[in-house]
């Protein structure tokens, strides 16, 4: 008995002595293994394609500042948005849930109600529970209010009700009304004597539109975009009043940058999460005069150069505040590229040899890979060793991965913890992924992509993009055929069956939405 007691006692003493003997270095290593609370920044582009950065192969555009993140961090070659348009991808990146589970997660008008439930888990909510300050600067496009918004009062619920302590946003898109900034729910700079009214149904009496008064426009509409005119640009939707609050399109990049820098500076004692959602290169492309003409590729190229400069300035701010070693940056885009998305802005004429989608097929709105495969970079100075990763990663995984980073047990319904892949510790990403374009979905598993047969046009002629619709099943091996040129469905029926089964297991055997779109 005594000897047993002595044995335990000695053991305990030995343990104490051992831990007391640990060198300083060992201690810091041990500490390093626990949950970390670095600052986290998502830099999210709007419609930037897989081939739009020099670090992703562009030869006609030079993007040194974003390239510096790609070269100093992990450049993912299989990084995906969930969807080929904005609203659903933005829903997924914040909630960790596939957007096709929510029927309202489709391109929203500026008057749409909020589509994230205020009781839903989100990246900022999860981080807030861990003591983070949480902010959004830039494009929102996830709806505001609960229907019939009065823009002259506090507009809610919105970002502040789903996890952000601070929000400075544009409500929908740069081409949609209301063309004003909203800070914590209030229209910035609104003159109460000049109230704002917004409608997507009918014009307000006496207000000129792009359709009726093309002579008042300085940017011409190609398709859609012929309602209210703001700063010479005809938009989607009608708006009246709010003159003093209207944004200046050419100053938007500088304006958001100033807000993002101020957020970092004010929260430098951290930890903070900043979701910085840039508006470029979505239409209307309105480079600041400093960048106009700089790319030789028209405004689309110019705003990509502008965005690259913005990213450089933002990173400099982190550096100046001494935060670069303590900040994880995730850079990506909400969907693939489109050249002509509704305005005559010379994007097509001046494109030259540039290929916004790189080697991929399709573009924005497409089920082919260019719709959803986008630049995807993680950067953390001193913590992430530079490299390229082929791991399959998706923005929907950021919730679970950031939760793992900060030691939270919160998860999104479809979010996988890919922290090791994002940190460059493994090349193992997720095994499979459902991809979405409009109301249609496709399936990626390993190196394979399967697109079910869908009704509808093969090409959207307005934007000149192949949508992925075909009367037959399509099966591609992306490793051997990145450009999806060779349909292997007939040649490889076993693989096709495996893909269909895998797809149905996630998407649901009897999904009525798919059934309506499917050919059989
Ligand atoms: C489309 C617009 C397009 C763009 C898109 C949303 C027309 C004809 N086209 O409906 O210009 O605004 O919506 O883009 O109106 S997204 O990147 O926000 O999803
Ligand atoms: Ca977009």
Please specify the SSE layout and strand pairing.
Layout: H1 2-21, H2 24-33, E1 39-45, H3 64-72, E2 74-80, H4 86-95, H5 123-129, E3 133-139, E4 166-170, E5 181-183, E6 186-187, E7 197-199, E8 220-221, E9 229-230, E10 233-234, E11 238-240, H6 252-266, E12 272-277, H7 299-320, E13 327-333, E14 343-344, E15 376-379, E16 387-394, H8 398-406, H9 419-422, E17 432-437, E18 440-445, E19 448-451, E20 459-460, E21 465-466, E22 474-477, H10 493-507, H11 512-517
Parallel strand pairs: 1-12, 1-13, 2-16, 3-4, 3-12
Antiparallel strand pairs: 2-15, 4-5, 5-6, 7-11, 8-14, 9-10, 13-15, 17-18, 18-19, 19-22, 20-21
Bound molecules: 2-acetamido-2-deoxy-6-O-sulfo-beta-D-galactopyranose and calcium ion (CA).
2-acetamido-2-deoxy-6-O-sulfo-beta-D-galactopyranose binds next to loops.
Provide a compact summary of the structure.
The protein is α+β, with helices and mostly antiparallel strands.
